[in-house]
């Protein structure tokens, strides 16, 4: 399956809303800055990988040119994200969440099944289903492009992360970064790191914070994250049912068409008109499901990942606090024994600075997170409502005009 | 067909089935329905009257009508299907949505059945039909035989007819093709009903989830907007539920009725083939009798000759009779099929328009809900 997507030349199936074309900072309202603008200008889907063309426009002196493009794959995005996470300097920031892996498995499976079942359906049915599955494939494709783009835009908009050297290499180095996926041993290490983290998480979460702001944030984020998770799962389920219903209407339209073409009696003409109506309404229903997916489901999924990143930040601060408190205790013990006091003092100072540095930037990050979140929800909820209205009105008009014709005929 | 239009033009006849009531308890319980008739037809003694009937009464009526009229080529409307599951729930006293839905579905189906019967000009003349609507207590709980009697014999017919009239052959093919498509369509509409019910449930789940999210959101305006969104989704849950009911009652039931009716249509074609076969068999028998007579003449057995001559006379009469029967039944089948097609066209148009109107109402509601929500979303700051 070979699909090419070009911004500007995008004349994909028009069942996606118009808002989806153009700059795709989908879920996040970001300040685009003339000094550094990043976007994904093209993407190519090959059998088991997606190649993104990352396009940069910048007036910064760090880059050799003002405008350039490179080709990157998903693993390279993950490498960049992980390099941020592992960098101690960035411990006090909310690391923009990594984009999820492009997943065409389900879609590919469906296309394959369709190919196998080709003999058992009429040519029209086959063509129709093929078109639908291709449209679905394209929609997933557009989404994954958008999610990878949002990640880059978040990094580019962050005052500190945008200066990161790895980021610049990612943007500019026009060879393969040779970032192989993690091997088995590294995956095991990751697994254990996460286990330790969650155990620690419990420990750290238990320590009550002196600072009201952070105490409130901790409580808030824990609850918020869980609720966003639930809402995200439920929205997915709801949208899936919606798509299934639209598919049913499609099949009903086809069968009515067959009934209508069996003869040229009045009732057959009636069936043909109704079939035509259902064809049109089901396209609208499919659009409604797709728009709900973009404006609601994707929004919730994104904030699920971002709230996790915010939790991670709190965790890191919590760890730094524990280290600081331990260093304090160690200093007290050293003073009491009058042994290695200088060493303990230095150590304590380092921990103190680290903790204070993280706390300061974390506070700002969390405030920014809130602002971004409110703006993103506002944008998407408004757009969702407007699209729902647009589609409902479209449906209404179709039904009214069809009923007018049908009633007039009898 | 003449009679049909006469009735419609000169006389009124309205029949409805209402007020399902459970009678008795436990496994012997049954549902009794009120059958109300309002008419100016002279064959009835009063203008308005009601009786109470139960499902097996309608089954009994079908069996009587089928026994009498199918062999003459009439298309006898089939009653609704029996449902052991559905009835058991009602008997056991399960007062939930699905048993209420079942009772309503059955009530509506019985009403449509009875209306089809009384609006059939020939069946209306049958005294059993009159008895069903206006005399007290028909036969009780006795009739529990399978109702698919006429429809059973249909597709097993292997009689090869020398069709002199191409009309019948073409019509039968049309009926079979239509049956196939309607069955397909029914399956799909059932699937739609299922998915809409699922959508309703999932929307409700989502609504609750959004409400929870809203209550933990610490920006006041966003929190408020999210709880408003939860309300909208709640209303959508209700809307989807209603739409699923409409899908089912207006559309699915219509298709189910006509799939059963097409069964009756095929039964009438089968009946015609049976009478043809009987006529052919009689002709063959006559031929044999003539051969017997010839043999006897040649063998010179005068005593048996008279018997042979009597036989020939007998079978000549039968051949004439059976040919007349075949012609009569053919004419009836033809008339019935044309009448059926008219009724079907009317029915489909009426029901589907009703269904589309319910879809329209849904969209209007949808618009109201989202229009109310939009300013809330815009108010987020």
TrEMBL record, chain A:
UniProt cross-references to PROSITE patterns, sorted A to Z: PX
Keyword Transport: yes
GO cellular component annotations of the record: cytosol; endosome
GO annotation terms (biological process): intracellular protein transport; retrograde transport, endosome to Golgi
Signal sequence coordinates: none
Domain PX: 30-177
Molecular-function annotations in GO: phosphatidylinositol binding
Keywords: Protein transport, Transport
Gene3D superfamilies: Arfaptin homology (AH) domain/BAR domain, Phox-like domain
Superkingdom to which the source organism belongs: Eukaryota
The keyword Transport belongs to this UniProt entry's keyword annotation: yes
Coiled-coil residue spans: none
Pfam families reported for this sequence: PX, Vps5
InterPro entries recorded: AH/BAR_dom_sf, BAR_SNX6, PX_dom, PX_dom_sf, PX_SNX6, SNX5/SNX6/SNX32, Vps5_C
PANTHER family the record matches: SORTING NEXIN FAMILY MEMBER, SORTING NEXIN-6
Family membership: Belongs to the sorting nexin family.
Its job: Involved in several stages of intracellular trafficking.
Name of the protein in its database record: Sorting nexin
Gene source species: Hucho hucho
TrEMBL record, chain B:
Matching PROSITE patterns: PX (PS50195)
Any single Gene Ontology cellular-component annotation: lamellipodium
Subcellular location: Cell projection, Lamellipodium; Early endosome membrane; Golgi apparatus, trans-Golgi network membrane
Keyword list, A-Z: Acetylation, Cell projection, Endosome, Golgi apparatus, Membrane, Phosphoprotein, Protein transport, Transport
Start and end residues of each PX domain: 11-140
Listed SUPFAM superfamilies: BAR/IMD domain-like (SSF103657), PX domain (SSF64268)
UniProt-listed GO biological process terms: early endosome to Golgi transport; protein transport
Recorded family membership: Belongs to the sorting nexin family.
Protein name per the record: Sorting nexin-1
